[in-house]
Amino acid sequence: MDKHIVLLPGDGIGKEITDSAKQILGAVASEFGHSFTIQQQEIGGAAIDQYGSPLPDITVQACQKADAILLGAVGGEKWDALPADMRPEKGLLGIRKELGLFANLRPIKGFPSLLHASPLKEHIIDGSDILIIRELTGGLYFGRPSERQDNGEAVVDTLYYRRSEMERIIDKAFQSARLRHNHLTSVDKANVLESSRMWRDIVNEKSEEYPEVAVEHELVDAAAMKLITQPSQFDVMVTENMFGDILSDEASVLTGSLGMLPSASVRSDGVGLYEPVHGSAPDIAGQGIANPLGTILSVALMLRHSFQMEEEAAAVERAVRECLEQGFHTADLNITNGQLVSTGQMTEAVLDNL
Amino acid sequence: MDKHIVLLPGDGIGKEITDSAKQILGAVASEFGHSFTIQQQEIGGAAIDQYGSPLPDITVQACQKADAILLGAVGGEKWDALPADMRPEKGLLGIRKELGLFANLRPIKGFPSLLHASPLKEHIIDGSDILIIRELTGGLYFGRPSERQDNGEAVVDTLYYRRSEMERIIDKAFQSARLRHNHLTSVDKANVLESSRMWRDIVNEKSEEYPEVAVEHELVDAAAMKLITQPSQFDVMVTENMFGDILSDEASVLTGSLGMLPSASVRSDGVGLYEPVHGSAPDIAGQGIANPLGTILSVALMLRHSFQMEEEAAAVERAVRECLEQGFHTADLNITNGQLVSTGQMTEAVLDNL
Ligand SMILES: CC(C)[C@H](C(=O)O)[C@@H](O)C(=O)O
Ligand SMILES: CC(C)[C@H](C(=O)O)[C@@H](O)C(=O)O
């Protein structure tokens, strides 16, 4: 198949880790007889430096023509003092919104050789395998008004959702649950928010269309507790944008290897943006020691979700797993009796296993 | 001193645990020469059953005349099907708002003999001692509009704060930090919300009035991670209502003994409502096996924060600690070689140590 990919390295370690991912894409293409054209554009701080905007038009236009987008990471102290509208994160929020990438998928599953680094006791984290689905283009993130009022004596943000926005993400969640263990936990704050009560109504309505999926409702505060005390009880979790931001980051530290976690932000036609969950880590940028595996696993998600290349995705995931079993680890990980390697060496190891 | 306390047992185990607390208050009064008058009123499901409202006028009026209020817990399946405005939780939200109890204080500190039950590894939870301060009467919880729009095709909730509401809770947090380890973590989502940017501005302004307090800003998603990976790095944490709801519940499971945690909801003149963090546990109600210690420790907070009785508060806290050291535990706890006791026996044990 021919696929067109836009690469957005972003800031900090973004360049190094997306370089690794490019090599993996090349290997998959030649191994499986595909053709991937890769075009690079700027986003975030790098785009501010070069174009004066965290999301220049040229980047948006390129992404609009892409089958999928791979992003490294954005942000860094250098741009922290800029006004809110000119901050690197605005590039990320902007591209999600411009492309309508409403469904953020975050699989949380540990690797046996890394679980010892979990902050949780082993019997608690053992067997956890969660897919968090977060609504990504609505709610408090984009509602208007979002402004100071009364000469700065008051301030307002707006949690706004259209019913159709809730319906499509909830549909996505039911469909994902059907491909996994038929268990969906919907998270809301229905005892306080009207938006949550509408959310809960829609989940209950939709559940009749997916009778094979068992549905639970959990309040966001209770979910934040249960992720820690009983993470293995979850299968698919679905929630709105802000709750999803908090809960998915909370969940991302449970397995003890944040640097390994991939994410996908997709829309209905399969176009998606893929990025590791970790940040731009400016403190170690340029040293060649960053962990490329979260980005490489994001490539696997791209192959699966945007290109329907399940076999290729599974091959990449297997190659990563084998590297860990062989004891290779970057500086952010620790494997007993393992071998500490650089970004480049880790990438080589994945290529060897592929 | 003469103090007037309103007791709101609420639902489920609420009656049993506030009965225990009443005995402790009696013992403190005679031990230290105070006079506490205690008047009982209904709230939550019990009030719905008796008065047709989760917060009847008679309860509000009684609370308005009180020096402090002690609450058990509200809620239960029995009332879950009622419309939102008639649910037990509305009683809790209503009394906070009616009395202007804007500062929710949640101390999170483990007990040595119970830490083994923490979901976290021992070296992670060790040494943690956090005070979470949550704004309790503003934000998404009370902002208007909170309604369906467009014939049910859309929905809106409103995150609204007045500057003065932010100022008073942030002041409270700085003052609390000064009484502890002079370290304040302010949690917001300033990269997305205008309300968070105003919040951050106010924290920075106020920090000049409290030069001895070191201030850190943390994004809410990062804070949700750090609570799990480095809980011992926090001293006082302050945040707005919804973020505080999520983070304080997340934090409450870290020590492994949710049943032990007290909370206070206070306003500037010292009037406060005190309640355990745990819920109404309808499944074990009436069996005499509930853990009364979260409520008894809430009494200690009442003595300290509403009555300025530091010595009395410390005595109650010491008595509770001694019970645990003696090995007494209720069914929700587990102490190696300890002795399983009932609600009444645990209360006796505290009284003996007092
Ligand atoms: C950078 C920030 C605006 C963003 C978000 O809150 O969505 C990030 O935390 C994320 O989760 O991707
Ligand atoms: C019962 C509910 C409305 C309440 C809240 O969200 O404030 C509870 O979760 C709490 O934290 O006291």
From TrEMBL, chains A, B:
Keywords, sorted A to Z: Amino-acid biosynthesis, Branched-chain amino acid biosynthesis, Cytoplasm, Leucine biosynthesis, Magnesium, Manganese, Metal-binding, NAD, Oxidoreductase
GO biological process, one term: L-leucine biosynthetic process
Site (Important for catalysis): Y141, K189
Cofactor binding annotation: Binds 1 Mg(2+) or Mn(2+) ion per subunit.
Top-rank EC class of the record's enzyme: oxidoreductase
Residues reported to bind substrate: R96, R106, R134, D221
Cofactor(s) needed by this chain: Mg(2+); Mn(2+)
GO function terms (MF aspect): 3-isopropylmalate dehydrogenase activity; magnesium ion binding; NAD binding
Pathway(s) annotated for this protein in UniProt: Amino-acid biosynthesis; L-leucine biosynthesis; L-leucine from 3-methyl-2-oxobutanoate: step 3/4
Catalytic activity: (2R,3S)-3-isopropylmalate + NAD(+) = 4-methyl-2-oxopentanoate + CO2 + NADH
EC id: 1.1.1.85
Binding site for Mg(2+): D221, D245, D249
Coiled coil: none
Subcellular location: Cytoplasm
Family: Belongs to the isocitrate and isopropylmalate dehydrogenases family. LeuB type 1 subfamily.
Role noted for this protein: Catalyzes the oxidation of 3-carboxy-2-hydroxy-4-methylpentanoate (3-isopropylmalate) to 3-carboxy-4-methyl-2-oxopentanoate. The product decarboxylates to 4-methyl-2 oxopentanoate.
Subunit field text: Homodimer.
Name of the protein described by the UniProt record: 3-isopropylmalate dehydrogenase
Organism listed in the record: Lentibacillus kapialis
Gene behind the chain: leuB
